[in-house]
Design goal:
Blueprint (H helix, E strand, L loop, with lengths): L6 E4 L3 H11 L6 E3 L3 H10 L1 E3 L2 E3 L2 E2 L10 E4 L6 H7 L9 E4 L6 H9 L6 E5 L4 E3 L2 E3 L5 E5 L7 H12 L4 E3 L4 H22 L15 H20 L6 H11 L9 H8 L9 H11 L4 H16 L7
Helix pairs in contact: 6-7, 6-9, 6-11, 7-10, 10-11
């Protein structure tokens, strides 16, 4: 089995930098961060700060294009088509690709260009990473979850598992149930990202044990997640109430003052990834004859907040 030695991280946001910072300690000479055009000049000039430590990663625009063993895509969904083009010089016959984008569709989009067989289903869970410019801070590192969409044990995924074990990056290889695990995160993101972005609230507001909890916010979040559960059952995935309970348990470990990625985007006046969540579950709901009114409302409201940030209104 050919070992994974060289890695390109495509995406210098919260997840991408958290990951690059951790991998740098294991493979400093074999790690590249994707940077072309304006980003290349900015990254050269400013570098990166992860938990207040400066990193000067090797940048793809300064490297001779050649195939790497693993490409990890951790960009925003709205940048995906650009990233798919930019990584082309680094894709070889044996290159494996991991997508850590939110939602349930990025593997198919990337696979349409480079071959679906290169990609397991994958996601990152459990981090409270916060992103501001070229700085990322986190208290909990995200665990990468991955596995075959059809529950098949294959050499591609064994290579990935061996790599994360060797580099001491926390990862969980799902040999049989990765599709359900991906939908579990989709449920969380659909509920937590949209609700927190609309209300502009930190994690503390949604924690059951926090003195700063807001019961109305928790109820709205849970209603959005229950609609995902209903649609998942129609799609043969089978999420249930235990998954909601699991989410609230996991939430207790996150930084009280941290924000979801979508809430960070709204607070910073950036474009969000709203199309991955409410609109997607509403589309699937329509296909299966399941009503999703809470997610329809959340999608419209967050979409309006996003557009409001780019228009001038008197407060």
């Amino acid at each position: 089995m050919k070992k994974i030695e060289s890695v390109l991280v495509a995406g210098a946001g919260a997840i991408g930098l958290m990951l690059a910072g951790k991998l740098y300690g294991a493979i400093p000479e074999k790690l590249l961060v994707l940077a072309e055009g304006e980003r290349l000049e900015r990254y050269r000039r400013d570098g990166f700060f992860i938990n207040d430590k400066k990193f000067d990663f090797s940048l793809s625009g300064d490297a001779s294009p050649s195939a790497v063993d693993l490409v990890i895509i951790a960009s925003k969904y709205y940048s995906l088509n650009e990233v798919i083009g930019d990584i082309r010089p680094f894709i070889g016959p044996d290159t494996v690709i991991i997508s850590l984008l939110n939602g349930i569709s990025s593997e198919d989009v990337i696979g349409a260009k480079y071959g679906r067989e290169r990609l397991p289903l994958s996601m990152v869970m459990g981090t409270d990473a916060q992103h501001n410019g070229n700085r990322v801070n986190y208290s909990r590192i995200g665990v990468i979850n991955f596995g075959d969409a059809d529950g098949i044990v294959c050499e591609r995924d064994e290579r990935i598992a061996e790599f994360f074990t060797r580099t001491a990056y926390p990862a969980e290889y799902h040999k049989t149930d990765m599709k359900r695990a991906l939908w579990y995160k989709f449920m969380i993101n659909t509920g937590a990202n949209q609700t927190s972005a609309l209300l502009r609230l930190p994690y503390a507001a949604f924690k059951r044990k926090s003195p700063r909890r807001i019961p109305e916010a928790q109820i709205l979040l849970e209603k959005a997640m229950r609609e995902v559960i209903d649609v998942s059952n129609a799609c043969g995935i089978g999420l249930d109430d235990n998954d909601i309970e699991s989410f609230f348990v996991m939430l207790e470990d996150l930084n009280d003052d941290g924000f979801t990625s979508m809430c960070q985007d709204i607070l910073a006046g950036r474009k969000t990834e709203i199309e991955l969540f409410g609109p997607e579950i509403c589309r699937l709901g329509r296909e299966h004859g399941i009503r999703t009114p809470v997610n329809e409302m959340l999608a419209l409201a967050v979409g309006a907040l996003e557009k409001r940030a780019f228009m001038k209104y008197r407060e």
